[in-house]
Amino acid sequence: MLTSGSVSIENDTERTANPTGDGAGINPGTRVCACFTSAPRLFADSKLCRTMPLFLDDVRIRNFTSCFKDKKFLAFFFKHLKKNNTDRYMDDFPFLSICGVERNFVRCDDLPVVFTKVIQKQNAETGAEEDWFSYAHADNLLMVPFEPQRLFMNVNTGRVYHPALEKAGGIGLVRSNLAIEFSASFSFRNGEQNPPTHFTWKDKRYELDTTWFKDKLTGS
C-alpha cells in the first residue's frame, strides 16, 4: 500500500487486523506515517515524486487533488517531527511527529525534511534582506536560514543536501528541480568525480564546508 515519492498517514486499526499488510502488529489507533522524500528512478520524471506531497495511506489515486495542501497542517506536522527514540518500531520508522497523545511514525526513502524554496525575508533590526530555506511546502511557516556554504552534493546520486533542525536529524534534502538549478553554480576544483568545492550565490563565491554532514548522512 505504501509507495515511494510521497508522505502518507494511516490510522492503523485496520492494518493491525490484516497481518499480511505492511506494518502488521502495530497497535490499533496508532497512526503510521510513511514518508518517502525522494523518488525511485522509475518515477524520477513524475511531478508527484518531485514535489513530495502528503497523503492518507489508504488513498489509492495519489495526485494533487488527494494530497494535504493546508500549510498550517503541514507546518504543525513537521514542526513536531523528531527522531524516534520511543523504543517502538525504531528500525522501520526512524522518525515520528507527535500530536497530543497520537504518535505519527515516519519512515523515508532518504530524509523526512525536503527543502522546497529559497525565501527572502527582511531583518526587522537591520532592514537587510536575508535568505531563508523553506521546507515541506509550508513557505514562510517552516524555514531555516539559508547557508549556501553548507550545501552538499552527493556526486553518486546527484542529490543535494542542506542543514536542517537538529531534532529532525540535522540535515534535509533539496527538492530535485531546485537541486538542478543549484548544480549550475557548483565548482569542482578536485574534479567532477569528487564533491563540489565552491558554490556561487548572488554573485558571491563560497567555499563549501565539506565536513558538517559527515555524522548525519549515511554513506557520505
Give short descriptive properties of this protein.
alpha+beta, six-stranded mixed β-sheet, 220 residues, disordered N terminus, 15 strands
Would you write up a description of this structure?
- With 220 residues, this protein is of the alpha+beta class.
- The protein folds into 2 domains: 30-106, no CATH class; 114-207, no CATH class.
- 12% of the residues lie in helices and 30% in strands.
- It is built from 4 helices and 15 strands.
- Strands 3-1-2-6-5-4 form a 6-stranded mixed β-sheet. Strands 9-8-7-12-11-10 form a 6-stranded mixed β-sheet.
- A hairpin with a 6-residue loop joins strand 7 and strand 8.
- The radius of gyration is 18 Å and the shape is globular.
- The chain starts with 6 loop residues before the first strand and ends in a 13-residue tail after the last strand.
- Mean pLDDT is 75; it is low at 1-25, 32-51 and 61-67.
